Amino acid sequence: MVKIAIKPVSNICVSQVIDKDSLLKLNMTFNYSNVYLSDPYKQVWFYNNLTVSDIQSDKRPREKKQWAWLAQYVRHFDALNDAALHADYRFATDDWGINSHTTEISWHQPIVDGWQVIPRFRYYSQDSADFYAPVFANSHKSYSAYSTDYRLAGFGAISGGIKLSKTFTEIKPLEQFKFQSGIEYYDHSASYQLGGNNSGSFADFSYYLVNASISLKF
Prior knowledge:
With 218 residues, the chain is an all-beta fold. The protein is 0% helix and 60% strand. The chain contains no helices and 12 strands. It has strands spanning 9-19, 22-34, 43-48, 51-57, 63-77, 83-94, 99-110, 116-126, 136-137, 155-168, 176-189, 205-217. A 9-stranded antiparallel β-sheet has the order 1-2-5-6-7-8-10-11-12, with no helix packed on it. Strand 3 and strand 4 form a beta hairpin. Residues 1-6 have low confidence and may be disordered.
């Protein structure tokens, strides 16, 4: 199978310094995808009177247009050891019927000897795609597109965690050595979707993630 992808991206960004301690950034992005967007490894089962009548591979539109708007606010607090508040809000919409909202707040707190602690909270909500359903009726011939991929469902997610980081510049011959480690909790639920969702808890899940990373710059 030959896959041809055309993905032009348009981006407009405006930054405004509010005062010596505050910065506001606005960003608008447009993405256009013309590519094989279906997932052939996912199967869709069609039922008729509680009996499986048809099984097909996931089928999605071949085009996708997406618009996204991002607002970022950064506030510096000199009196709190140069701490900073980061607050982001992102709204995205596409012609698949998915509207999403993302809100993220993080606090960047220097502590001692270049170490920094970053607690973070994030909330995400999206509507389901026009061609998504957990179960389909009759035959695939009744639908132009269909998918049971839970990532296209309507849901919300809450996550939060804390990260510890430090950048070392005195380790030769490296120009920079950065260490990061953290823990995060993620909770995915249909009931967290804005406006409510009665699709049930079949795709609800949660997990903890512990991570550590290093990056080297020569």
